[in-house]
Each structure stands twice: as C-alpha cells, then as structure tokens.
Design brief:
heterodimer; A: 571 residues; 4-stranded antiparallel beta sheet; 7 helices; globular; B: mainly alpha; 18 helices
C-alpha cells in the first residue's frame, strides 16, 4: 500500500503550483503628497451589492465579478453610475436583489436609484458594460455583456432605456462575453462595437483544479478560447458582425479586458486586448483592417516572453513623450505590466524599474485606470485587487482573498510610488475588487472612483485630496465625428508642458470611465492652447482656457462653460 | 522564461546546502531523540524530493517540527525546501534576513537573492549578489542572476557586463535563458544584428522555448524581416500551446487522482473502475500497474471474479515487464 501511494504521488510530479504571498510592504513612498480618497458610498446613496453564484464545484464565472460605467446619461454634465450585477448561473431569472442598478447623479455628489424609472433590465449572468451613442441622437446608450452571451443594447431615450438588441441585429451565439467598448473603427462617424470574449466554459463541463488537495477556481487553460467580435454600425443603429472581414476572428485568446485608443497616433483607434493566461493582442487599425502587432511591439507577453494572467488594461502617455503607454493588470506574483512606448510601436516593459512591480506582485489585479489624482498633470494609476481563490489563505497562507486596492503616484520623472497607505479611508476598504471606473462624480474638479467588489458592496470614493492642482474638464461632443467624441485626442499646452488625453471607448476591466477629459494643471491658471483632433475631422485649436472650469465643446464651436448637474444641455 | 525558472535548479539544490551551520541549541540532537518527529521529517523530505509536492497536512507537521527544533540543520533545510516548493518567498526572505548577513553561506545568499527577485526587490537582489560576484568572478549562476536583476532595473549595460563576464560558461553550459536575456539586451541597445545572432543561438539550443522564438521574432521585425518575424511568432505560439496542453494534462491527472482516491475511500467501486480505466489511457508502466490494482480490488469487491482476475493478470504482466 505504501508503494501504491508512492506511485500515485508520482503522477503529481509535474503539478507544481507556485504563488507569491501577500506580504507586508515597505513603507509607502512619501513624495510630499497625501491623497484623501474618502469612502462616500453611503452618503452618496449607493447601495449596490454584487450577488454572484456560489457553488461547491466552483464554476469559473462565479469569481469574475462585474463592471461599472461612469457616464452622463441625462446630459446634465454630471456623470451617472450604472452597476452590473451577476445573479444566478443557469437560472432563467435573476434572484431578487441581484439586478443591475442605475444611479442618476443629483448634481451635488448624491445619487438617486432610478433603475425602475429608467427601465434598466437585467438578463443572464451579468459581466460588463460599455456605453456609447450608437444612433448619434445625443443620448449615450448602454451595452451589457453576460456570461451566456445574451448581451443587450439599451437605447437611451433621455428618460429611460429601451432594449433594441434584436432590431440592432446584435444576435447572440451564446458565448461568454466580458468587456466591450464602442469606437468608430471605420471612421464613418458612428460608433462600432468591440466585444471581448473569454472561454467556452459551461456549467455542464467544469474542470476541477486543485491546489494542495483543495478545490480551487480553474484557470482558463482548461477551456477553448472564444474569438472576440466586432460589430459594424451602419449609421442607423443597425449592426453586422465584421470580425472575420477585418481580421480579428482569426485569433482567440481568453479575452477579459480592452483598452481602446490611438496607440500609434495615426488618427484611428486601435484595440489592446488583455487575455488571461495567453498572449495579449494589440489590434492595429489600418484603414479599417486589423493586424496584431503585440508580439513585435513587445506587449504580448512579459518582457521575458512569458504569457501572463492578464485581467485589465489601460493606455496613457505616462512619461509625456507624446506616445501612449499600456498598463496591464495580471495575476498575483506577476507585476502590473507597464509597457512604455519608447519608439513608435516599440515598447519596453518597465514595471520594476518604474516602481510598480514590487507591490503589484503581491496582488491579483483586475480593473485599472490611469487618472490624474492630484491634478498635477501626471497620470497616476489606480488598481483594483482581489484574489480568485477564496480559500487561498487557509489553503496556502500565501495570500489573501480580499486585497487592498493600490494607488500609484506618478512622480513626474517616469517613476511611480505606491501611496495606497496614505490615500484615505477608501483605500482601506479591503474587498475582492474587480471593476473600476473613474470620473468627477461630485463636480469639484477632482477625479473620484468607483470599484465593484465580487460578492461585496460597490465602493464610491470621493477625491478630497488637498492641496491639489488646478484643473480643466472638457465635455466634447462630435458633429461629423461620433457624438461622444470617442477617439478624440486632445493636446493641451500649459506653458512649456504638453499634456495629451484621449476619449477612450474602453479601459479597465468590464468597465468604462467617464468620457469627459480631465486636465490637471498644477499651479497653472489656464491652458494656453488646446488642440482637439476630432476623429475623422479637422483639428480644432482653442486658446486661453481658464482653470477651474468645466467646458462643453461641440465640434468646431467655441467652448461653453457649464456647472455639472445644474442645467441640461439639449442634444 | 522567468527568472524563477532560471534559478529553480539552484533553489531545489538549496536543501543540500548549509549543512555546516551552528547548532547552538543542540536542537539537532534533541530532534534525533524525538523519533516520531525525526521520522516525519525524513518522510516529508523524501516525499518532497520524489514528488515535488507537499500536502497541507505535511506542511503543518513540518512547521511544528521547525518550531520545536528551529536550530537543527535537518529541520532548517527541509523547512526551507518546503517554503520554496510552496513559493513562500516572503518567509524565506524573513528567515534568511534574520540571520546576520556575514553569517550567511554563499548558497544562502543566493537563495536570499532569489527570494528578493521573486518578490520584485531587484535592488536588494543586486546588493546581495554584487559581493558574491566579486568574490567569485567566474560564477555563471551569480552573474546570471545579477544580470536579470539589472535588466529588471532597466540597467541593460550593467546586465550585459555581468553576462559577458561569464559568457563562455553560459554558452558551454547551454544556459538558454541567459542567452535570451543577452539577446534582449542587444535589442534594447538597438544592436539588432547582434540580437538576431544571439537569439538564433538560443533557438538552436532550445527550439521548444517560446520565449526564444518570441524574442527572435521581435528582433527580426526590428530588422525589417517580417517573414522571419512571422515565422517565429508562429513557432512561439506553437510552443506555448504545447506547454499549455502539458499543464492541462498534468492538472487533469491530479484531478483524476483525487477523484480516484475519494471514490476508493467511499467504496464507490464502479466509479473507481471507470476512473482507473480512463486514466489508463495516458498512464505509463508503473502507473498502469497501480491502476490495474485498483481495478482488481474494486472488481473483487463487486464480486466480479473474472474481471478482477483479468486486471490482476494485467498488473502482474506489467510488473514482470518492469
């Protein structure tokens, strides 16, 4: 019997799972800046709780969480909040209390639950959300993804939603959809839709995976990857699938997250796809056809050529060299990858050299977002963390399920410092975080954030950092370009500094941040010159924009100051 | 390829080192006097050596022994080996950092450096390794690790310096990961012809390395040779898929073993037979023999003498072949 057992154990020789523990960190760097992100969930009226399925068999979708959109749905200049819930896997209907929720901004930093009034529906096992004005009527519409692929397009009428999925031609093939994003890939002035998709998991074919003889949630390696989708809008709000025609269906890679932006600064939007345990993809848009440039650009794998468990993604020019960089959140023991674009379409992964690697290796990261947290003009990085093994602590002692979210301060010299422990009460709320979106939710010129937590309450954090720099906030609206101005690249000249921002149709994980562009000005009193590169349109130059204000800019027209939440700007 | 993979052999050998440390508390003698603890320690060590795994219950036993006899060299070695196996780099770092640096053996310093690397503390890693490299200039292991540390710190010149200082040893030792690293440094230094030359060497030495193919594809692309770049992208992809399939198969086997054990424990003999038959498809000789024994015992328990005998016969025949 002894030999018997020994022989059985030899089966397991190649089964070696390693994991880096969640460990004490060195004291946070103090770069002379204290942040103050205050947990304002209750005071703001947000009472959303994410309800996932929980089974003994540990079905993969249970652990994935859900997304959030921060977007202005009623054109009052104050972003609203839409939170996706998950519900019951395999059930016909969501259990009571497990529905999606819509919170309309009252304009004063409080929110009213308008889920019923706006007829926000909840189908399937909810995953992600994308927003975009698909019919260019001025009202931002909503797209919801689900595990079952029963995704929904909800048209915004200005006072509510109507489900136009079927009439829009968005037919389901019942595959697991995760993140989605609107962008105008063919530069025809209307918004098309990219849908990232994961694996062919079904509740009838779950693989069991063990660590130290304890059942854990599986990795996607045991399933077949599902190709992503691209839906082309014909301009009337009707869509057709063009994935094969444009070249994106030929690669499938466990897609979880999207960052959509003009990575090669050629005027059209490209798509970065974060794939879990597979090579990431960088779809370069060449006149409406796509080619994957990730391997040669150096953003498919880690710098050492290892595929990583990628969960989230974002783009921004973090070192002010005029070229957007890419950040990717990964599995614990792998760093959040910061791929810096040093030459056109050539990246170096510099996570450790810039100060992101050490902390991020101790976390399993999902949503992430570049945003200027202290209005100094440098994009900081916020990361939502939480493990996928709910028994990680008892099973291995190598980490914890609920993990602290991380705020990396951009020091302005290309480096970052982890300031999470000196960033206010919101960073002390430790949950199993997944989705993340940013935006100025209380109209004070500082960017706030919202995090979704798997099986937990959503968290709204107001940014009460003081002192902080001046700001300018821009609400761009296209005329010949799509109404949301998704894809608009804006360069602000402030004295000798050039800041570049872009309206992005997707970033983070299952989520989307506010489309309004935020410029931190530091101590400057104005933007000297603003150049707006409208997608498919002529550049527009505006001079002398005073700090401390919100501006509405219709394509080709002069900026109009507005106060968020005070008046509705007619479409 | 990761630094972890590069240095794993060093770490797995680590348990053999540090045998001549002081045992001031006489823990070693006390451990030997505690027959149960000593036997458990011996059993756990040989199980780790044989299987590369460590169940939670054994780790807990080991932890108790370590707490009771912390100064015994046998305990320390086995416990550190267990921590490495479980990827508990924090505890290894804590353990080794608690010892005054000058008292650490060279191998312990390498292990400390490795734990720093796993935790992303590359500055600390380099600081530990620099004096070692100075003391032993020809050490491929030390210089290789230093090069990885500096590369992560975006100091490619320093990384190159350390690799070049032991380059002959790297090549003769067929250290593919270090060769790939050298190629990547050339790539970062924009010396594309040298990058291609070096990375071709890596691919020749290990055509199964997806990292080597990936790096070479990047180099060819930067040289403007899209055709060769695409070819190596495809090869990297192919190797990645092979590796993913192998991981899947290994994990699936573990899953099946646990199910088989559970079914046996629950006396669910039909399930034992079904699982064993399924596992036989991918099993090798000794594994097959064990599986036939499961089938034999289960058929016997079900009263199927003929089927039981068939399984016994198969097991015996396999044992004879062995």
């Amino acid at each position: 019997m002894r030999l018997f057992r020994h022989l059985l154990l030899t089966f397991m020789l190649s089964f070696l799972i390693s994991c880096t523990p969640d460990q004490p960190r060195p004291p946070s760097a103090d770069a002379g800046q204290r942040f103050n992100f205050v947990d304002a969930t209750k005071e703001a009226g947000i009472d959303f709780a994410h309800i996932p399925t929980r089974t003994q068999t540990k079905w993969l979708p249970e652990i994935m969480g859900s997304g959030v959109a921060v977007t202005d749905l009623n054109r009052d200049g104050a972003p609203d909040i839409l939170l996706v819930n998950s519900g019951a896997l395999g059930a016909d209907a969501r259990p009571s209390g497990a529905g999606n929720k819509l919170y309309i901004n009252n304009g004063d930093g409080t929110f009213a639950d308008k889920t019923e009034e706006w007829k926000l529906t909840s189908y399937g096992y909810g995953q992600g959300v994308a927003v975009g004005d698909v019919d260019n009527d001025g009202w931002t519409d909503v797209f919801l993804t689900t595990f079952e692929g029963d995704n929904r397009l909800l048209r915004n009428t200005g006072t509510g939603f109507e489900d136009i999925t079927r009439t829009a031609g968005l037919v389901s093939d019942e595959k697991w959809a995760t993140s989605a994003g609107f962008f105008d890939y063919d530069s025809d002035g209307d918004l098309d839709l990219y849908v990232a998709r994961y694996v062919d998991f079904t509740t009838s074919n779950p693989h069991k995976v063990y660590r130290n003889r304890m059942l854990i949630y599986s990795t996607p390696l045991y399933y077949t990857a599902v190709p992503d989708q691209l839906w082309q809008n014909d301009g009337t709000g009707k869509f057709r699938s063009v994935g094969e025609a444009v070249g994106i269906s030929k690669v499938a890679g466990n897609g979880l997250a999207l960052a959509i932006g003009d990575i090669d600064s050629d005027g059209d939007q490209d798509v970065y796809v974060a794939n879990d345990s597979d090579a990431n993809i960088l779809w370069i848009n060449d006149a409406g056809k796509f080619r994957d440039a990730a391997p040669t650009a150096g953003v498919a794998y880690s710098e050492m050529g290892q595929e990583e468990g990628s969960m989230g993604a974002d783009m921004s020019d973090t070192d002010a060299n005029g070229r957007p960089d890419i950040a990717v959140s990964n599995f614990q023991e792998e760093p959040v990858s910061l791929y810096r674009q040093t030459d056109p379409l050539l990246f170096r992964e510099l996570s450790d050299a810039v100060g992101i690697g050490q902390t991020s290796r101790q976390r399993l990261s999902f949503g992430l977002d570049f945003f200027d947290a202290n209005n100094d003009g440098f994009e900081d990085l916020l990361v939502a963390n939480g493990h996928i093994e709910d028994n990680i602590e008892t099973n291995t002692g190598l980490g914890i399920f609920a993990q602290q979210n991380t705020l990396f301060l951009n020091l302005g010299d290309g480096k970052f410092a982890d300031v999470s422990d000196a960033a206010g009460s919101a960073l002390k709320d430790i949950q199993v975080s997944r989705g993340l979106a940013t935006g100025d939710l209380n109209g004070d010129g500082a960017l706030d954030f919202l995090v979704t937590n798997n099986g937990g309450t959503a968290q709204l954090a107001f940014n009460r950092t003081d002192p902080r720099g001046n700001f300018v906030m821009l609400w761009l609206e296209g005329k010949t370009s799509n109404r949301n101005a998704i894809g608009a690249r804006v360069t602000a000249r402030i004295g000798d500094r050039l800041l570049q921002r872009e309206v992005m149709g997707a970033q983070s994980y299952l989520s989307v941040s506010d489309f309004r562009l935020h410029f931190g000005l530091g101590s400057a009193e104005k933007i000297d010159e603003l150049t707006i590169h409208w997608p498919g349109g002529a550049p527009q130059i505006i001079t002398d924009l005073a700090a401390g204000k919100f501006y509405y800019i219709r394509q080709g027209e002069n900026p109009v100051p507005f106060v968020p939440g005070s008046t509705t700007i007619a479409p | 390829m990761r630094a972890g993979a590069v240095f794993l052999p060093i770490l797995l050998c680590f348990g053999l080192f540090a045998a001549c440390k002081n045992d001031a508390g006489g823990d070693s003698a006390r451990l030997r006097a505690d027959a149960a603890a000593f036997e458990n320690l011996r059993r756990i060590k040989s199980s780790m050596d044989a299987t590369g795994t460590l169940p939670n219950e054994d780790f807990e036993i080991l932890r108790t022994i370590n707490a009771r006899y912390p100064q015994a060299n046998e305990t320390k070695q086995t416990y550190r080996q267990a921590l490495m196996l479980r990827g508990n780099w924090t505890e290894i770092e804590r353990d080794l950092s608690a010892i005054p640096f000058e008292q650490l053996t060279a191998d312990e310093r390498l292990a400390l450096a490795q734990s720093f690397g796993k935790l992303g503390k590359y500055r600390e890693m380099a600081a530990v390794l620099e004096p070692l490299a100075e003391a032993e200039p020809g050490s491929v292991a030390t210089s290789g690790m230093l090069a990885f540390a500096y590369f992560h710190l975006d100091q490619p010149e320093k990384a190159a310096e350390h690799l070049d200082s032991v380059w002959e040893g790297i090549v003769s030792g067929k250290k593919v990961d270090e060769i790939i690293l050298r190629g990547l440094i050339y790539l970062r230094q924009k010396n594309i012809p040298r990058a291609i030359e070096i990375l071709k060497q890596a691919v020749e030495l290990n055509p199964q390395s997806s990292a080597a193919h990936n790096a070479l594809s990047r180099a060819y692309s930067q040289a403007g040779n899209e055709e060769l770049s695409k070819m190596h992208i495809a090869k990297a992809r192919e190797q990645y898929e092979i590796s993913a399939a192998s991981t899947f198969a290994a994990t699936r086997r573990v899953d099946q073993i646990y199910q088989l054990e559970a079914a046996w424990k629950n006396k669910n003999y039909p399930e034992v037979i079904a699982l064993a038959n399924e596992m036989l498809r991918d099993a090798d000789g000794p594994q097959k023999s064990v599986l036939y024994q499961y089938i034999f015992e289960s058929q016997k328990a079900l009263g199927n003498e003929a089927e039981a005998n068939k399984a016994l016969e198969a097991a015996r025949s396999l044992q004879q072949q062995k």
